[in-house]
Amino acid sequence: MNQEIIIPNKEDRVYYQVQKLNPWLYFQATLYLLVGGLYSITIIGAVIGIPFIIAGLGLWNSAKEFKNYAESKNIINLEAALEEQRRFFGTLGWIIIITFILPLLLALSLMLAMFFSPDLSKELNDNIPKIQIPHQTNKGREV
Predict the structure, then answer these.
(1) Using only C-alpha atoms, what is the Rg of the chain?
(2) DSSP one-letter string for 88-129
(3) Burial class of residue 73 (count of CB atoms within 10 Å of its CB; 0-12, 13-18, 19+)
(4) pTM of the full structure
(5) Contacts within 8 Å (CB) and 24+ apart, 85-90
(6) CA–CA separation, 117 vs 114, rounded Å?
(7) Are 86 and 36 in contact (CB under 8 A)?
(8) Domain residue spans of the chain
């Protein structure tokens, strides 16, 4: 059976939840930093990688402030942690917007390049592999 720990005081319940949340915040922050670093290896990937790094740092700072709150129970640390969370989610929103807009811009630029450069269009079309379908015969039947 799953037994729940009963904590009578509101402040202690918040403290308990912060303690449970904090390891996951550090884990997620580490993942965002790693993914951002890997994306940033390429120039085009840096468009997404840098916001990932900024989001990871914000989440790391939030975890640090939550840890400070858990140690001191000072409401200022809780406020700072929530402010860092707000920044994290704002950055995450921009990442989502970029991931939708970037492919559209790339597709649009390719279409414009093909429209204004007939040589590019012909070259791309010539390099598409042609599928050869072998001719089938019906043996023993009249066609």
Answers:
(1) 27
(2) HHHHHHHHHHHHHHHHHHHHHHHHHHHHH-HHHHHHHHHTSP
(3) middle
(4) 0.65
(5) 85/58, 85/59, 87/58, 88/55, 88/58, 88/59, 88/62
(6) 5
(7) no
(8) 10-95
With the CA atoms of 80, 92, 60 and 40 taken in that order, what torsion angle do they form, in degrees rounded to the nearest 10? -140
Phi, psi of 7 (to 5 degrees): -120, 115
- Provide the 8-state DSSP code for 139: T
What would the mean pLDDT of 115-132 be, rounded to a whole number? 69
Residue 114 has which token pair?
């093909």
What gap in Å lies between CA 14 and CA 75, rounded to an integer? 11
Contacts of 137 (CB under 8 A, 6+ apart): 143
- Which has more pLDDT, 12 or 5? 12
Q: Using one digit for the tens of pLDDT, what is the confidence trace for 71-99?
A: 888 889 989 999 999 999 999 999 899 88
What band does 7 get if pLDDT is binned at 50, 70 and 90?
A: low
| Those residues with Cβ within 8 angstroms of residue 75's Cβ, 6 or more apart along the chain or in another chain | 69
Nearest to 29 by CA among 49, 58, 51, 5: 58
